[in-house]
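@here heads up, posting the sequence + SMILES for the NAP run so it's all in one place. Ping me if the SMILES looks off, I pulled it from an old spreadsheet.
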Amino acid sequence: MRAVLVRQPGDASQLYIGECPTPTPKDTQILVKVKCFCLNRMDINQRQGAYPPPPGASEILGVEVSGIVESVGQSVTKFQPGDAVFGLMGGGGYAEYAVMEQELAMPKPDALSFQQAAAIPETWFTAYQALFFVLGLKAGEDILIHAGASGVGIAAIQLAKQAGANRIFVTAGSDEKTKFCESLGATRGINYKTEDWAAVIAQETANKGVNATVDFVGKDYFDKNIATLAIDGRMVLLAFLSGAVLDGVNIAPLLKKRLRVEGSALRSRSLEYQTRLRDAIYKHVVEEHFAKPSESYKLFIDKEFDWKDIAEAHRTMESNQTMGKLVVKVT
Ligand SMILES: NC(=O)c1ccc[n+]([C@@H]2O[C@H](COP(=O)([O-])OP(=O)(O)OC[C@H]3O[C@@H](n4cnc5c(N)ncnc54)[C@H](OP(=O)(O)O)[C@@H]3O)[C@@H](O)[C@H]2O)c1
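bot reply: prediction finished. Complex structure tokens:
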């Protein structure tokens, strides 16, 4: 089969479409003929050689696809050849064929195109996990979501709104992005390039702070994140876009305010954990919303690419200009 391969770790010009063996599904897996896959930030890190796939996963980039079931493993009961599916995998998505655990695959509703379906798994799983599995967000709580116009941020804003969050503060790097986040349900979008987001939140919460924070930025925001959390506040750390090593940070507020800071990585979670997440999302996000003509959740595809333009797709993600998913069609 053909797949997007990496000549050597480096920039986007290292990506090319080459030949490699078609994967064979294990007993519990399905083989999917891929129609679309989506980009995720980890793909950039993996391309650069800085993020190896988990043990046993394909070395090929890509963790989410949509497509048609080509064949199934011996003990697969939930799918058969010809079914339209989408879902999450440990790796191998940037290819003509990819294997997926049957437990992580989801039947594609007719209401969704293959492009839309491929745009759901990684960002919605990550946001759902962050908000409900890790932060335990409750109705009436205030939340801060950084990188609000990122794929994960877009899902998190909508999930928080649907869950009855009181105020949803969001940071993003342009006024266009903050307005977009407000159109999704954010109470206050803060352009971190022109405003001091921690000061805005302190003022708007009368110095009480927020109950929960979703952070991807790490080093540059750690102090302010801690200062901005209310008593008994929780923060989930999903990435460290600005760096991971902290110098001269006063950790006293962690104790004084009884804060909980937890890191989370979806890709390395057990199959049992990911299956629990998949089941919750299929019921509460896909069946109750995306499968129906519902106005409650929206999917945003920033741009579609043919897979021969994969290098351009990676450069687009690296530009930090996107508001939504980058979808790639396998042709
Ligand atoms: N831990 C997990 O399980 C998990 C799973 C999936 C994704 N993630 C992480 O979640 C993040 C979002 O992923 P995505 O695919 O949704 O990304 P995305 O759509 O490409 O959006 C990322 C956005 O982050 C903002 N950003 C980049 N560098 C920044 C910095 N130094 N400071 C502040 N903001 C910065 C940029 O928007 P602005 O214009 O607003 O700066 C950028 O557009 C990534 O870091 C990814 O690695 C983690």
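MO: Residues 271-290 form the longest helix (20 residues).
MO: One more: The radius of gyration is 20 Å.
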